[in-house]
Structure formats: C-alpha cells, structure tokens
Amino acid sequence: MAKTRRIGSTRKRLVIAIIAGAAAAGMMYFYAGSLEAQANAAQSAAIEEYGGTRTEVLVATRDIFAGEELSAENTTMMPWLADLLPRGSITDPSDAYGATLAIPVWSNEPILSVKLGGREELIKVPDGLSAVSIPIRDDMAVGGSLLPGSSVDVYAIGSSQVRLVLADVLLLEASNGLGMQQAGNSEESGVVLGGSSRAALKWVTLAVRDESVAELLHAARDNTLCLVLPGQNAGAALIQHTEDSYETTDDAPEGPGVVQSGGQGR
C-alpha cells in the first residue's frame, strides 16, 4: 500500500512539473509575441507621426555581403514612408529572391535594385591590363571615400622608407560600396564628399599591367600600402620628387614595374 502511494505521489509531481513547464513555455511564447507586437506598433506610430503615404519595402534582416543570395531568410517586408524611400527600392520580393548582391547591404537597410548582380558583371577590365585586389584601410586611402574610375598612385610604406610602387593606376572597384552611387553625388576628383553612407574600406581592385602584378602583390605583402589621389598636374611632381629622393639616398627599388609614370598604370 505504501509503495502504491509513493508511485501515485511521484506521478502527481511529474504531472505537475509537466503542466508547469508547459505553462512557462506558453507564457514565454506570448511574451515574445507581445514584444514583437509592441515593436511593430512603435514602428507604425513613428511612421504615422511623419505623415505621408506608407508602402511595403524589402529590407535586410541582417548584414548581407556581396555574393550572398537574397531570400526570405535574410530579408523581410517592412512598412516605409514612400517619400523617404531611396530610388530603386524593391517593393516586390519576387524581384529580388534568388538574386545575389553586388554591394553589401546592412541590417534594416532597404534592398535597392542597383545593388543586385554578380561582381563579374560590374568589373570591366581594360584591354591589356589585369585586375588585382589589395588590402587597404580608410586612413590609407583618402579617408576611404574613393570612387571606382579614379586614378591613384600606390605608395609602399616600409620600416625605413616610402616608395612609389605604381602611378596613375585605374581603380576598378572598392569595398566601400560607393561603386553604384550616382556620379552626381561626387566631384570629378574621384572622392565622395559630405556624409554619404558607405562601408569601411577593406580592399580595392586596381587595373595594372601584367608585368606589374607581382611587384604590387609583393608590396602589399611586405609593406603598408597607401593610395594617393593626385590633383590636376600634381602627379608628375610627386613622381619626380620621389625619383629625386631615390637618387640622393640610393634607395631606389630595382626591377620592372616599380614606377609607372606618365599614365602607364592605365
């Protein structure tokens, strides 16, 4: 009899524990749903406060990088003020799902049609040149706001010297995400001015002659590289100053492809 009572008591405790666990899970579920509802309500209230027509737009639910495919797993539809939408924002998910990004998109940022497509569709290498990507930082590339199409000089900063590696080199693409922005947002100098939104610069792709590829990669491996954007008539003076410095210090690097002057980088 005592054994039967113990078994019955154990079963009761087990049933109570299961019920309590289910109740806790249910409360967590409803709590999460309440938080989501509150967030959606706050967002709707904020949008309505500004007035204007609302529309649904496709936005990123996380940071999505170039080459990633868009899907329901990394994007969602969200309400947005139509007057504040960037041009080219996607309002129909079927126009984007299955496509890849050519330019990174950050969390909660609207997906723009201009940012879709493989990178191979964006980078066009001029005849006779090769595309080479090198690591670079914002502070070593005119603040990181360089635009594709710019002509830059590449300097290598070593432990004891600074040398010109390539001059007048065409910049094909950069990781700052400015490649597809309207040309009207920048000056002809090749730098975006003002508070334009962009990603931190981590690499650039340059168009160089085949014989200069190895020299550029060696310089990137052994030195800190710096990109210089010469102003009008400034490039020749920079190159001459560098060559004169080498003549006086006997530090000039030897071998082909070290300095490309007079437009040879392009």
Overview of the structural elements:
This protein has helices spanning 2-50, 119-122, 210-222, 235-249, and strands spanning 54-60, 75-81, 129-135, 151-157, 162-174, 203-209, 224-228. The chain is of the alpha+beta class and 266 residues long. The strands form two sheets. Strands 3-6-5-4-7 form a five-stranded antiparallel beta sheet. Strands 1-2 form a two-stranded antiparallel sheet. It is elongated.
Global shape: elongated
Helix content: 25-40%
Distance between the termini: 97 Å
Mean pLDDT, nearest integer?
A: 75
Taken as a percent bin, the fraction of beta residues is 15-25%
Q: Provide the domain count.
A: 2
Question: What are the key terms here?
Answer:
two-stranded antiparallel sheet; alpha+beta; disordered C terminus; Type Iii Antifreeze Protein Isoform Hplc 12; 7 strands; 4 helices
Please sum up the structure shown:
The protein is built from four helices and seven strands. The chain is α+β, with helices and mostly antiparallel strands.
Which helices and strands occur, and which strands form pairs?
Elements (H helix, E strand, L loop, with lengths): L1 H49 L3 E7 L14 E7 L37 H4 L6 E7 L15 E7 L4 E13 L28 E7 H13 L1 E5 L6 H15 L17
Antiparallel strand pairs: 1-2, 3-6, 4-5, 4-7, 5-6
